[in-house]
Amino acid sequence: NQLHGCLSIMKFIIFFIHVPFVYSEFHTYITSYTGINGHTIPEFSAVTTLDGRQIDYYDSEIKKLIPRQDWMKEFASTDIYMWKEDTEIRVRVQQIYKNNIHVLIQRFNQSHGVHTYQRMYGCGWDDETGASEGFDQHGYDGEDYVALDVKQLRYITPVQQGVITMNKWNNDTAQLEFLKQYYQHECVNWLKHFLPLRKVDLERRGSLSFRNLLRSKKLLPNEDGTFQKTSTIIIGPDEWEKNQFVCVVEHKGRTFRKILTEDEIKSNNSKFNSFVNFFIIFIPVHNSECKMCIWECNSFQLCIIFILT
């Protein structure tokens, strides 16, 4: 389902690059937090992407927000105060996520071990129709925990352990109003603000992220304890004959690239279009009453922290 697919994106972000410029009419601006207990390093990481491409990164080891694109470096240098504030947001989230994982371990009646708590939030905007949408999802150990239905402005949960959290947040009108304003206005405004900055940088380099993931299957377990995920992109013959495609996978601050050959792009699915399937295997890292923390800020990130107590 949609929520499961979105939560899967927390673990891997896949996008494609090719030359020359390709027009993209639907844009996304997404931030994801991942907290991990145990002796894993780093125990917390945060990533923000624009149209599937990482624009900043933070983790509990480096303890500072790092711009990942040249244009983002320029943006960070023009407003040092805001960049510092966004770093502080992640520091606060890092501390709170340690507590959240401890609470969820008790709520799910689990023994100590490696567990993950994740949140992914952001918005999408169609620059042709002007339509926009927001999303905000919390996950635990790779499964849906609580999610915000932005249109209905109500939280939902697929698990019994999330009912207390859901009810608590649904009764917090101040929090809901804050999120409503963010997803209807602020998130999209920042997305629109960043697009021209990225465009200038792309025109300088002569390439663009080609984000056309049409099919993305859910995570499936393997017998050896790893997981797999398959994503499919449709590429027209005029595109693969004239351009070089590179599959790029970003995971926990590391980037993996693979240049796709013509044989890999071609398939027998259609005589008009080619389907490229990417089979990815990765190792898993393995409510409670909730409070909310909001402080006054002018950040380009969502100034809100969810605390499980």
From TrEMBL:
InterPro entries: Ig-like_dom_sf, Ig-like_fold, Ig_C1-set, MHC_class-I_related, MHC_I-like_Ag-recog, MHC_I-like_Ag-recog_sf, MHC_I/II-like_Ag-recog, MHC_I_a_a1/a2. One of its GO terms (cellular component) is extracellular space. It holds the Pfam family C1-set. Residues 1-24 form the signal peptide. One of its GO terms (biological process) is immune response. It comes from the Eukaryota. Residues 29-199 form the MHC class I-like antigen recognition-like domain. This is Immunoglobulin C1-set domain-containing protein. Gene3D superfamilies: Immunoglobulins, MHC class I-like antigen recognition-like. Keywords: Glycoprotein, Signal. It comes from Cyprinus carpio (Common carp). Residues 212-253 form the Immunoglobulin C1-set domain. Belongs to the MHC class I family.
